[in-house]
Amino acid sequence: MFTTNSSDPNYDIYVSIIQNKTYWTSLAVFGFIFAVAIIAGNSMLLYTIYKDPHKSLRTAPGFLIVNLSVADLLLGVFSVSIVGVRDVYRSQQLSMPFLGIFKAVIGTVSTSTLLVSSYTIIAMSATCYVAINQPMEYKTIMKTKRIKIYIAVLWVMSFATCILPLISVSKDTYTMIYLHTHATFPAILLTVIYVKVFRAVARRTREFQQSGCNKMVAKSLERERNMTVAVITILVLFYITYMPQYITIHLSYFCNPCQRSVTFHEIDVALSRLLCLNSAINPFVYCWRLPKYRQALKDCWKICRGAPHRGITGQGTPSHSSQMNTSRIV
């Protein structure tokens, strides 16, 4: 088992565990690619929503998308990019200067933003279910004020989670709290919500088919099929990005041979970077596939070029999506 008696907050234990320059260099390259993709994609999305000429994106689900994008952008700027720099130092078998400060920044930002992202995706998924199952009551249920309160509570909860280590909560207890709040509960909730979504889609499809074949029915069926594909994509991405790290964290605590294996630590560190993948692709999964967001982006581009813009005609149905992890971006 790898241990150290160093009390130096700037000590990087992974420098002594994994002494492979190519490994760390590869992680640094991928880290910078993820950082650029996250920052560019989410900055463009936030700019589009802010500059949208007709303000058609400032709806209740639109605020959830903004919240998700802000969380992803913070992760890219204050966590993923710093981790990339740290990997460069690790490739040279050096500890990054002021590592103690950067560890605190990375841990706080990762823990808070990943929790916000996960539960924002859950809320977006819930709006999708309400839109399908209760279309007539949708606007009454999904009010902007309720969404704003939910977002505020979410950020307070995320920062409260970050301060647990400062109030004498043991590392093991904190890790278990982190795992279950960032992965277990979101995975269960998303699965339950999407099972309900699938059932609602199937019921609506039967209703459309029984109403006869016409252009409106065909269009509705196509929309339901597209929504089903989006749901499957979201679930697959969530499990791909969250579950591997979820498994390795448990193994690092309960598998003694794993704790002594350099290969295991290499896999564990690499899988922690998968958590950043969600933040890079969220704008494409949740926004750019929607006509109204693509049209708003085109309008903003025309404004930047000084050209007149057309009215935005995209339909405003809510979207949905997800992401785990934390100070485990090691």
UniProtKB/TrEMBL annotation:
Q: What is this protein called?
A: Adenosine receptor A2a
| Native species | Acropora cervicornis (Staghorn coral)
Q: Which InterPro entries match?
A: GPCR_Rhodpsn, GPCR_Rhodpsn_7TM
Give the transmembrane ranges. 23-50, 62-85, 105-129, 149-169, 175-195, 229-247
GO cellular component terms given for this protein? plasma membrane
State one molecular function term (GO).
Answer: G protein-coupled receptor activity
Q: How does it sit in the membrane?
A: Multi-pass membrane protein
The record's subcellular locations are: Cell membrane
Enumerate the CDD domains for this protein: 7tm_classA_rhodopsin-like
Segments forming domain G-protein coupled receptors family 1 profile: 41-286
Kindly report the protein's main subcellular placement as a broad class. Answer: membrane
Provide this UniProt record's keywords sorted from A to Z. Cell membrane, G-protein coupled receptor, Glycoprotein, Membrane, Receptor, Transducer, Transmembrane, Transmembrane helix
PROSITE patterns reported in the protein's UniProt record: G_PROTEIN_RECEP_F1_2 (PS50262)
Q: Which Pfam families does this chain map to?
A: 7tm_1
